[in-house]
Design a protein that fits this description.
The protein is built from six helices and no strands. The protein is mainly alpha-helical and 165 residues long. The protein has one domain: Up-down Bundle (Ferritin). Helix 2 packs antiparallel against helix 3 and helix 3 runs antiparallel to helix 6. It is elongated.
């Protein structure tokens, strides 16, 4: 007899706890979608081929992370219909757009704005990783994704440092 993973979670987690977990995962999904869209926008604005490639690489990474979270949300018996970022993400993207316009689309300004977004994403992941009791069944996934974001941040900070010299 095959038992659905959905049934296991629904039968062993209190309904309120499961709703909170799904809400947390959807928040991370919004952050990932914000990152994907932010990197896509940055790739369209810069004229530097090297940066376009880096931005598109991380946009694709975030799309992959989002798919992983969508699948995990489904395991918890919910549907992840969010294909775009959240309200805070909209504000962050707007800030990036304004900063890009004011700085005449300078690469350093774009990279600096991305650093801000990546640090915020890492902090949000850390918040949920710290809550390892509620997020035990997907702790490894969150840690892997956070590590990927940290690696992206490191590369973006290196690129930014070279542009500020």
């Amino acid at each position: 007899m095959v038992i659905s993973r959905n049934l296991i979670f629904k039968n062993h987690l209190p309904m309120e706890n499961n709703k909170e977990i799904v809400s947390d995962l959807k928040e991370l999904l919004s952050i990932l979608n914000d990152g994907k869209e932010g990197y896509e926008s940055a790739s369209e604005v810069t004229d530097t081929l090297e940066l376009q490639g880096v931005f598109l690489k991380y946009s694709a990474q975030r799309a992959g992370f989002a798919e992983e979270l969508r699948a995990h949300i489904a395991v918890h018996g919910a549907e992840a219909d969010n294909e775009s970022g959240g309200i805070l993400g909209v504000l962050h993207r707007t800030w990036i757009d304004i900063k890009q316009a004011l700085s005449s689309k300078e690469d350093a300004a774009i990279l600096d704005a991305i650093v801000t977004g990546e640090k915020a994403a890492i902090e949000k992941y850390a918040e949920y990783i710290k809550d390892y009791t509620d997020h035990a069944d997907h702790l490894g996934l969150l840690q892997k994704q956070q590590a990927g974001i940290r690696q992206a941040l490191s590369e973006i900070e290196t690129l930014l440092a070279h542009r500020k010299q």
